[in-house]
Design brief:
2 domains; alpha/beta; Rossmann fold; about 30% helix; Elongation Factor Tu (Ef-tu), domain 3; six-stranded antiparallel beta barrel; 10 helices
Length: about 300
Amino acid sequence: MKVYHSLASFQKIPNAIVTQGTFDGVHMAHQAILAQVTKLAKERNGESVLITYDPHPRMVLFPEDHNLQLLNTLEEKIALLEQQGIDHLLILPFTKEFSRLSSLEFIRDILVNVIGTQTLIIGYNHRFGKNREGSFEHLKEFAPAYGFQIQEISAQDVDEISVSSTRIREALKRGDVTQAARFLGKNYSLKGIVVEGKKLGRTIGYPTANIQIEALHKLIPADGVYAVLVKCAQGVFGGMLNIGNNPTVEGKGRSIEVNIFDFSETIYNQSITIEFVDKLRDEIKFINLEALKTQLHNDKLQTLARLGMKA
């Protein structure tokens, strides 16, 4: 997949099959659109093109919204899109000036003059252009005049619920990582750096790696204890992860820490990826560390069962 970060770096393609949007999460509905784009490109001996934006448009249009949380970093989104078989990824810088482009200007100046769009494929109820004025009906009106075709993908449903990035965010915010995985078509993941903690876990037989998430707007699931897979330089391991304030330990503060099974190496400053498989329980305040240790033993047994691993 070729990646471009400006219109100036993109060379017009004779037979371009195009889609565009933020594609946060690259979820099941996104995958349906991308599958149609790549399929049509092969059938017509053309090339597939995806136009997306950085930063996320809401960061520019609503800068006062400090609670914006995203399912993917740009790096993660690029990797996921490459897995979908896209030939060309055009990442346009989203600015206030760009947001003022009318839908007609977007069609004429970008889709036609720069990309060379032969067919544009969009998702159900997709909007674009200044004040979101562009729609499927709008595109149908202008497509013949500019010599391209337009296709719309209908709403994709999982368990009779329309799949969207918003619904996935809502599931994660309540800790429902299994529903999020159904919508995403994969486990939700976090990537971070292992930093030093208070090392309390070692004293009760459950050492943890404390994870610092560096991506400012990356969504962190609800507080609680989760069964996870841990991917690091040493391999893939099972683990149980806690997100929260550790109420049993005074003054510890909010953290993300994971007990990695059958693992004893020191990995400070290493990058690791956490895949969420299931939520075990909410955080609990225990009467003492011995009670916490007993619960952690039970948590580990549950985690091993949910990961399909032997105790």
